[in-house]
Write a structure and sequence with these properties.
The complex is a heterodimer of chains A (114) and B (111).
Chain A: E1 4-7, E2 10-13, E3 19-25, E4 31-37, E5 43-49, E6 56-57, E7 64-67, E8 73-78, E9 87-94, E10 104-105, E11 109-113
Parallel strand pairs in A: 2-11
Antiparallel strand pairs in A: 1-3, 3-8, 4-5, 4-9, 5-6, 7-8, 9-10, 9-11
Chain B: E1 5-7, E2 10-14, E3 19-24, E4 29-37, E5 43-50, E6 55-58, E7 61-66, E8 71-76, E9 85-93, E10 99-101, E11 105-110
Classes of the chains: A mainly beta (114), B mainly beta (111).
């Protein structure tokens, strides 16, 4: 199993450009999450999904949109990138089974907005 | 704001010593989890303790939870250079399905 994969690994955008980050998991997990991590800070939840076709806002959703059209994929979109969105983005997934609480993380996408 | 606050922010020890990291949180929780992050990598789950548990062990890891003080500690015994990483606590609130992470402790184990 590949686990959780993220595409791309690195990206540089200019202010105002758009892009989509792709997260894929092959563990048949119900729940998927997008976080951002800034220097000296822990992870902050952007958006999450508790199942195919569902999405919900996290702690810092402004400037981002998400879609979960297929169970195995969770897409994070930036419609008009801003320098404040320079960060490392992590995707994670989790089983929907009760008692299976741990999250599995992807390797991250390092995004720089100039 | 972050649910969890970790202490210390950075810890430097010699190989073979024990490392203790602390985490405090604010709201009622279902469980508290500890994750490890090597530089430039994703987080890896280490151990979970439920709200009705007080102590849990896994290999060289020992986690305690005090729900009355809303705090937890992670002890790594007989540390190794390979334990050098950032360690994060994360709480799952009673509403479920989401984790809130602390700011992490950077552990350096010197050979």
């Amino acid at each position: 199993n590949a686990g959780v994969t993220q595409t791309p690994k690195f990206r540089v955008l200019k202010t105002g450009q758009s892009m989509t980050l792709l997260c894929a998991q092959d563990m048949n997990h119900e729940y998927m999450y997008w976080y951002r991590q800034d220097p000296g800070m822990g992870l902050r939840l952007i958006h999450y999904s508790v199942g195919e076709g569902t999405t919900a806002k996290g702690e810092v959703p402004d400037g981002y949109n998400v879609s979960r059209l297929k169970k195995q994929n969770f897409l994070l979109g930036l419609e008009s990138a801003a320098p404040s969105q320079t960060s490392v983005y992590f995707c994670a997934s989790r089983s929907g089974t009760s008692e299976a609480y741990e999250q599995y993380f992807g390797p991250g996408t390092r995004l720089t907005v100039t | 704001s972050q649910q969890g606050e970790e202490d210390p922010q950075a810890l430097s020890i010699q190989e073979g010593e024990n490392a203790t990291m602390n985490c405090s949180y604010k709201t009622s929780i279902n469980n508290l989890q500890w994750y490890r992050q090597n530089s430039g990598r994703g987080l890896v789950h280490l151990i979970l303790i439920r709200s009705n548990e007080r102590e849990k062990h896994s290999g060289r890891l020992r986690v305690t939870l005090d729900t009355s003080k809303k705090s937890s500690s992670l002890l790594i015994t007989a540390s190794r250079a390979a334990d050098t990483a950032s360690y994060f606590c994360a709480t799952e609130e009673t509403s479920g399905s989401r984790l809130t992470f602390g700011e992490g402790t950077q552990l350096t184990v010197n050979p």
